[in-house]
Amino acid sequence: MSSSSNPEIVQRAPQVCSHCKSIKKGCDKKLPSCSQCIKRRAICRYGETLEPRRYGDEIVRAASPNVGASGSVSTWTSIPRSVLGTLDPTMRLSILLTNSISDLVHTSVLQTNARRQPPSMHAIFYSQIRNIVQTDGQYFETILTRYFDGVHIWLPILSRKKFYDRLKVLPSEPSADFSVLLLAMRLITQHPSSNSEMNQDREILYLATKTLFAQVQAFIPSSLCLVQTGILLAHYENGHGMAEAAYITIGTSSRMAHALGIEEAVCSKKIQGSYEWFDEEEALSTWWGLVICDRVIALNPDTSNRPLATRSICGEDYLPLEPEDLAGQGGESTSFQYRYPVSATSLTSLGSFGRDAQASYLMDKVRNTIQAGQVYGDNLVVLGSELQSVLGMVMTQTAGRCGVYCGSSQMLIAAMYDLHHSAATVPDDHISSGSAESIRITLKTITRMVIDVAYAFNAEATSLDIGRISPYIAHVVKCANQHIMMRAHSQLDQWYRDFEELKKMLEYYSLRWIGPGQELQRVMQNIGTSGS
Question: What is the reported pTM?
Answer without folding.
Answer: 0.82
